[in-house]
């Protein structure tokens, strides 16, 4: 029998009560939340209880999960994105939306509506920044669930990236390039449209299209001297971007190229002569499309073209030569506007079997270096009659480069050469080769790179007349000490006073050949022993000197007179206030007979505060005075106020 507070349970559609032997079973099918509770079984006065808890964690519909995970939600810019996601689970349910890991909250564009089994996110007036990975998180007391989806807001592309860069500007063609847009609007670029505007007019005219993989355009319907602007627009399925507008481009007038440079004979034999050159620095109004080679016999004024049409490349073999004759060549560059100026002519060369190439230069060496030059020297190669060197070519390459560059535009006939205009402390690899009419010999290269700097020198002071070991400076005056030196590389410079760093008012300036100490306003405390030390990789040197900052001393204190020894007078005085600060300070004692006006020195260079005068004539009156002196001069005197007299009978002071 069940207690009154319990409901009786009988078998039904979902609930089955059954007995299997001595065991009673209660089966509940299709469990629902209201099935939670405490169940009791009673029989023959006995009873037992069990509690049933029904859990209902958050769960997304599997079809919805598959749809959200495999499909990108597309929304056009300006439209409203609406995403509905059904779910199930025990209430209350907390629903949160995230974009790229950041939780979304409602504002004037975003709204989130949650019901018992559906959550809906709405974003009005969408823009490209709303694109991203969306995450929906569910949470109740029974658990958590989350799912992801992708939202893509499509729009027309951004404008192509600039600036518009002109590749070619001639009287017949303007070519330029640009960069693809940073943002394609979420849809692939289909093509680019190019518009043209003639400066002074308001209208734009479409002049062409290029496919999505091309970011260059050539416009060949230009008038020389006219000014144009070009606008590039990117196009995708959503529309046309804003335009990237070029600066004003003035179509070039006819301009032919300048002369090619460095025409050179590479090889010569009885049947042909091979020459080379480098392109002109000035290509005129368009790119170079070819070259015309001309030849003449040495001594002739008539030039003739070697080929009927311009050739390409920077090297050509001329076969129309007569063995034994001597020829000169020149090269003319050609662009869309026509042929330009001719190059300088090559040196004359015979159409004959080539001379044997010269041997390798010997004893290639560096003779001097500075911060902007490197001087080289070498010995000629060993040669015979058929391989005599005609000159030398010096070549260099900088650190990090793989290209050897000729240093001398004119042939070097001597066995020395100086490279100029180098970068300070630059690293240069150098080589030299001999050449003759047969061609270039093998180069010889220095074993290591050369630094553009003077030869290594350990620091050394230049002890000229301006460098002194002792200086006396009047207090308040400036102190300026210049120490010239030589050293390479420039040394580290350290100044000390008494072994310690200089005071804040001291300034040190150093160059590659001197160092200077400046103290604008000197003080007594600036006195001391100064040292300057130079140090580089090749040595170290120091120099010490003394500076004494002083001034005319202050006068001694009051003077007293005593007759400590009969018929003498002992003069005593209080020390000058500068005595403790100046170990060069001493005193001078002077005496005057009262009957005369002149003072006479009776004691000099006195380093204490007492002096005894023995030259006293009894019966005469004397005045005494004491002065302090140092390297800067004498102080004012301290005088006795009353005369001193020793009586003829017995020494006695009279007042």
From TrEMBL:
GO cellular component, one term: M band
SUPFAM superfamilies associated with the record: Fibronectin type III, Immunoglobulin
A Pfam entry, by short name: fn3
Record keywords, A-Z: Immunoglobulin domain, Repeat
Superkingdom of this protein's organism: Eukaryota
Ranges of residues in domain Ig-like: 58-154, 459-550
Domain Fibronectin type-III positions: 159-258, 259-354, 360-456, 555-650
CDD domains (UniProt xref): FN3 (cd00063)
UniProt cross-references to PANTHER family, sorted A to Z: IMMUNOGLOBULIN-LIKE AND FIBRONECTIN TYPE III DOMAIN-CONTAINING PROTEIN 1 (PTHR13817:SF181), TITIN (PTHR13817)
Name used for this protein in its record: Titin
Lineage: Eukaryota, Metazoa, Chordata, Craniata, Vertebrata
